[in-house]
Write a structure and sequence with these properties.
The protein has about 130 residues and is of the alpha+beta class. The protein has 2 helices and 3 strands; from the N terminus they run βββαα.
Length: about 130
Amino acid sequence: MSDDKDFGPWIDWAGGPCPIPDAKAGEYDLKFVDGNPSSVVNKIAASMWNWREGDVNIPIIAYRVRIPADDLLRQAIEALRDLEFQLDGTLHCIKWEWDGDQREIAEMVRDKARAVLTAYDKREQS
C-alpha cells in the first residue's frame, strides 16, 4: 500500500470491468478481500488485474487513484501560505514574549516560506 496523502479516497468495488483502464503502474492502489497488499501493484497497469468478482481467489474490494502532481503541489502551496500567515500573525502578536532564538527561527521560517511563495506566484503568472 502507498502513502495515503498521495491518493484520493478508497472506492468500494464489487466486481466488473476495470474502472481505471488507463491507470499505469504506481498510479493506483488496491485493497483485497484478505486484507493483504499486493507487492505488484506498483509494477503493472491496472488493466492487467482481474477485476471481476468470483473469477479470482482473492478479489479486489476497493481501489483508489493517485492524486495528480499538480493537485499535490497546489495543496502544498496552500499549506505553506497558511503557515506563513500564521507565523506572521504570531510574530506580530507576541513581539516581546519569545526569546531571541525562538523569534529568529520563526522569522527565518516565515521568510523562507515567503520566498518560495513569491517564486511560485511569479511562475504561475508567466
